[in-house]
């Protein structure tokens, strides 16, 4: 069964190969997949929202039904209602992600009546990769090319050059 519109949200700071894999898998299940770049007040950012937008655009050129949106200071549930979303996609890497997402799902169900949440489990080779670990490796100027799409590397180099 294919639904009309989906939404996959995250901070994508930075975008990882795991994120791209979830996006590609979710995109085949819907006519339109919104990828929402959200500000997470509990995380300190490395890339600006505009840089993340550019990275996502460049990394997802082969996924034609994706629409990237920037979302500041709004709840996922409110954005889902506004866009008339049918399904929310969430990626799960491990049991900690599951616990976090289960709690989030409790509130999203109450705030987005009729919107289903589908969980896509990370491929085993991508499960250890997290944005927070990538930010740590970037901070210590370690090679992250194995874990992130090429546009992330270009943006990291650009930041290094401006220091």
Query: How many β strands by DSSP?
Result: 5
Major sheet summary line: 5 strands, parallel
Could you list the spans in which at least 5 consecutive residues all have pLDDT below 50? none
Q: What is the CATH class name?
A: Alpha Beta
First-last Cα distance = 50 Å
Lateral strand order in the biggest sheet: 3-2-1-4-5
**Series of secondary-structure elements, N-terminal to C-terminal:** EHEHEHEHEHH
CATH topology (fold) name: Rossmann fold
Structural class computed from helices and strand pairing = alpha/beta
Number of helices: 6
Question: What's the quaternary structure here?
Answer: single chain
**In the residues, how many domains can be counted?**
1
Percentage of residues in DSSP E strands: 15-25%
Q: CATH homologous superfamily name?
A: HUPs
């Amino acid at each position: 069964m294919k639904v009309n519109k989906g939404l996959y949200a995250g901070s994508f700071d930075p975008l990882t190969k795991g994120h791209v894999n979830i996006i590609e898998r979710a995109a085949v299940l819907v006519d339109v997949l919104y990828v929402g770049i959200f500000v997470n007040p509990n995380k300190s950012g490395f890339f600006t929202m505009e840089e993340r937008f550019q990275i996502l655009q460049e990394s997802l050129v082969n996924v034609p039904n994706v629409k990237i949106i920037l979302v500041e200071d709004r709840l996922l549930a409110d954005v889902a209602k506004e866009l008339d979303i049918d399904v929310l996609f969430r990626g799960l890497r491990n049991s900690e992600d599951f616990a976090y997402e289960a709690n989030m799902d409790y509130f999203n169900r109450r705030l987005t009546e009729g919107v289903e949440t589908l969980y896509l489990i990370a491929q085993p080779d991508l499960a250890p990769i997290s944005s927070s670990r990538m930010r740590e490796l970037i901070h210590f100027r370690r090679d992250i090319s194995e874990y992130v799409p090429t546009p992330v590397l270009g943006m990291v180099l650009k930041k290094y050059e401006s220091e």
